[in-house]
Amino acid sequence: MKVSAAQVRAARGLLDISQQELADLSKVSLRTIVQFERSSKPASESILQVLKLSLEAAGIEFIPENGGGPGVRLSRGTANT
Fold it and tell me: Is the dihedral of CA 31, 32, 36, 42 positive or negative?
C-alpha cells in the first residue's frame, strides 16, 4: 500500500508529533519529510516504506482505499497521551 502525504500528516496529528519528531523516529531527514508533506518533491519507495513502518511502530494503522478513501487511525490499545 502506497502512503500519501495526507496520510503522513494525519498520522502525525493523531500521534501529536512534529515533523522533526517523525524525522528522529524514522531516521529520514527533516527536509525530505517537509518536501514530501508539501508535495513539492516525491519520496522514493524506500522512504515511504520507512515512514510507514515507523508510524506503524508508533501505533498508526494505515487504512487502504475501500470506497471511502485511504486513511489512518490509531491501532487498538494505543493511547494518545
Answer: positive
Query: 28 vs 12, 22, 31, CA distance in Å?
Result: 14, 8, 8
Torsion of CA 47, 80, 71, 38, to 10 degrees: -50
Answer whether 55's CB lies under 8 Å from 49's CB.
no
Whats the size of the chain, residue-wise? 81
Picking from 38, 35, 32, 78, the residue whose alpha carbon sits closest to that of residue 55 is: 78
Convert the pLDDT of each residue in 3-14 to its tens digit: 999 999 999 999
Q: Give φ, ψ of 31 to 5 degrees.
A: -60, -45
Amino acid in position 28: V
pLDDT in tens, 26-42: 999 999 999 999 998 89
